[in-house]
Amino acid sequence: NEYGSFDRDHAYMSAIRDSIRRAGLGEVLLYTADGPSQLPDGTLPDLPAAVNFGPGEAPNAFAALHAFRPEQPIMAGEYWDGWFDSWGHPHAHTDSAQQTAELDWMLSQGASVSLYMFHGGTTFGFMNGANATRQGYSPQTTSYDYDSPLDESGRPTKKFFAFRNVISKHRDPAAAPLPDLPPPQPIISIPEFPLTGYALLTRNLPAPTASENLRTMESLGQSYGYILYRTFLHAAEGGDLVISGLHDFAAVYVNQSFVGTIDRRLDQDRLTLERVPDFAILDILVENTGRINFSKALLTERKGITGNVAFNGSDLSGWQIFSLPTNDVSHVRTLVELPPDCKCWLDVEHPEPKPVPAPRGKGPVFYRGYFSLQELGDTFLDTRAFTKGAVWVNGHPLGRIWRIGPQQTLYLPAPFLRLGKNEVIVFDIPDAQSPQTPPTLRGLPEPILDELHLSGQP
């Protein structure tokens, strides 16, 4: 699929084809799919070729395919009837009327059409990708709703019925009528509930790897999640902290006090630090926010810090590196558990509730809470009380959250839920704009996928 957008190594493609044949998958299953201009690079002479394109491009794309392969059938390998979302950009809204008319035209030409996407989905956990655009690095959201005919939770949209009517129009009149739609899956709401348990990341660190120089996630056998780099700073009136090769988002702390973020998405590489005491602990928590998965850029997607870190023009060394893949958060120790009706935070050193600085002021934090259900159904967790992180429900990783949007809910499918007690764990990286009140969650019957909050962003 779309190999022509990456290279034109036909010996490599032939080896892939041969390995698939040896696996016994059969000749009739094999074809290639590329953009119109990449057909010469991404195809093999003995395999059918399909062409991928978006709305408005069908006539030219089919003409290119016909000119390239005049004897074979015409097929759209991917007709992009929507688009994915990226953090910090509006939710995709595409022209259903245009797509419906173009689908009608393609079917009238006798073409085969594969709709991408027909059913929107979810990149659960940390599995979202990223694009390299003219504006730079652009990570995609957890939701892959895609503005598709079936939405993220599988419900039909207006686009679904428009496409269904067009497809029905081109069916054999003697064929049986289209079947009725299956009954909709149950959708539930979950009343607001508090997350009363919390555990600081700094109290839940694994054993570090000592290294004079920085190392990437991959060099430590890690693929996804977070990585924490720690070293010491010496006394200075202040200066620039410069991170070269940040992949992809860093929260920076001096003596465990938050001092700022650096975001590859915004082409940032530095922070100005105020006066630094001698032997101050520098912590740089880096998140892999998604690998570029298209074009030659995907070859460069090692994660963590791929270059060096300098302060006041001098490279820093002598690092302790903590690998934090967060595949499983069941081991996280809850340091404090609040009473359900407590509206304040508990001081770890005192048994009685009293107003103290929230754990958000102490760096990255894991929260834990519970809710009870008497019926099961799909729902959408409202995550707007948090800043940036990830959510697990009953051990299932739902995906990433980020206050900037556009996605403000996480799809929580019914099979992840239980009758009775359910557990939620949220990892959050608070910043200077984060509220200092105990966070809450609730389950909504509809997603929020188009709400941008860019306050506090450079």
How is this structure best described in words?
- This protein is mainly beta.
- The protein is built from five helices and 31 strands.
- It has helices spanning 10-22, 39-42, 58-68, 96-108, 158-169; strands at residues 32-34, 49-53, 75-80, 112-116, 121-122, 129-133, 136-139, 143-144, 190-194, 197-200, 209-211, 226-233, 239-243, 246-247, 249-254, 257-263, 270-273, 280-287, 291-292, 304-305, 309-311, 314-315, 319-324, 336-337, 365-373, 379-382, 388-393, 396-402, 409-412, 420-428, 440-444.
- The protein has a six-stranded antiparallel sheet with strand order 24-10-25-30-27-28, with no helix packed on it. Strands 11-23-12-18-15-16 form a six-stranded antiparallel sheet, with no helix packed on it.
- Helix 4 (96-108) packs parallel to helix 5 (158-169).
- The longest helix has 13 residues, at 10-22.
The residue fraction in helices comes out at 10-25%
> What's the N-to-C terminus distance?
37 Å
The Cα radius of gyration reads 25 Å
- Helix count, DSSP H or I runs of 4 or more residues: 5
Report the mean per-residue pLDDT as an integer: 92
Q: Which class of secondary structure composition applies to the elements?
A: mainly beta
Unreliably modeled segments: 345-351
**Strands of the biggest beta sheet: in what spatial order?**
24-10-25-30-27-28
Measured by DSSP, the beta-strand proportion falls in 25-35%
Number of strands: 31
Largest sheet composition: 6 strands, antiparallel
What's the overall geometry? globular
Task: Please supply descriptive tags for the structure shown above.
single chain, six-stranded antiparallel sheet, mainly beta
